[in-house]
Amino acid sequence: MIEVKHLRLMAAIDRHGTLSGAARELGLSQPAITQQMQRLERDLATPLVTKQSRGVTLTSAGRVLLRHAAQVLPALQRAESEIAAIAGLRGGEIRISAFASGAAALLPKALARMAQEHPGISFRLGEAETEQSLELLRKGDCEIALVYEYHSEGMTMRRPDLQHDPDEIWQIAMEEHIWLAMPRSHPLAADAEVNVADLSGARWISGCPSCQGNLVDVCSVAGFRPDITYETDDYIALQGLAAAGLGVALLPDLMLTVTRRDTDLVLKPLSQKRYRRVSVVTTKALGAVPGVMETMQAIVDVGGSLLLPQSVTQDS
């Protein structure tokens, strides 16, 4: 029954003391103001203004509305300002869900740039694997998801549960090489590149479920199922296990840019090249918010400029 326009009307009448003054402030005609007031008084079944020799004054009921207007209108103004700030890159919070190595290698520089250019924006970072990040995005629990997909020789090896929703915006941040990690003492450590088929009898070290799925895919193409003897989500531990000769492993570039590689660890390219495509994802609705798109672009820029360890990891 009582609308925001009614509260604004009561505040304007109180400031000006006339319906004509309130009409000018609100950009309406005096007849329109009069009709609005009469309709509201009829709905509330009580007068809200009383005529004086010069203008009008608020009744007791009108003062009640004015008191509430003094609380509601400033709160609405603050809400409008905050929304305008978010849309205009002046403030707000952007929630990002990212996998571990992406969060460590891509986000610090990207978010530092955003903090410098748009200090009013704050960020909340959560760590999750690709499937969980996409689920959070689609449930509205984050604004940006940093995800990855594996592919070989131009063919994407997309998992059945990793679908590109038509209502989403996907931007590729980078393409990572997948390296074979082995101890320096391994018989194949001197080869320029390694055929995975030659490792059918090897012990393997694997990481998260997605990484393990990639390993199984690679070995399946080579005609065998890997003997996974160690599993860890900690990519530093994974490198240490491989360097110690406890198995061989597959490592993408980002896992090598944020940790110092053990001197006993050798990284070799695969004869059948394997890659990991890293993307930033948001919804088309969120794409209308400049802060979200600018943050995504900052991540893409960092991904394109990141110095990957391609030239220093192929040592024998």
UniProtKB/TrEMBL annotation:
Signal peptide interval: none
Record has Membrane as a keyword: no
Source organism, top-level taxon: Bacteria
InterPro entries attached to this UniProt entry: LysR_HTH_N (IPR000847), LysR_subst-bd (IPR005119), WH-like_DNA-bd_sf (IPR036388), WH_DNA-bd_sf (IPR036390)
SUPFAM superfamilies, sorted: Periplasmic binding protein-like II, Winged helix' DNA-binding domain
Organism: Raineyella antarctica
Gene3D superfamilies, A to Z: Periplasmic binding protein-like II, Winged helix-like DNA-binding domain superfamily/Winged helix DNA-binding domain
Recorded GO CC terms: protein-DNA complex
Keywords associated with the record: DNA-binding, Transcription, Transcription regulation
Organism lineage: Bacteria, Bacillati, Actinomycetota, Actinomycetes, Propionibacteriales
One MF term in the entry's GO annotations: DNA binding
Family: Belongs to the LysR transcriptional regulatory family.
Protein name: ModE molybdate transport repressor domain-containing protein
Domain HTH lysR-type intervals: 2-59
The keyword Lipoprotein is annotated on this UniProt entry: no
Pfam families: HTH_1, LysR_substrate
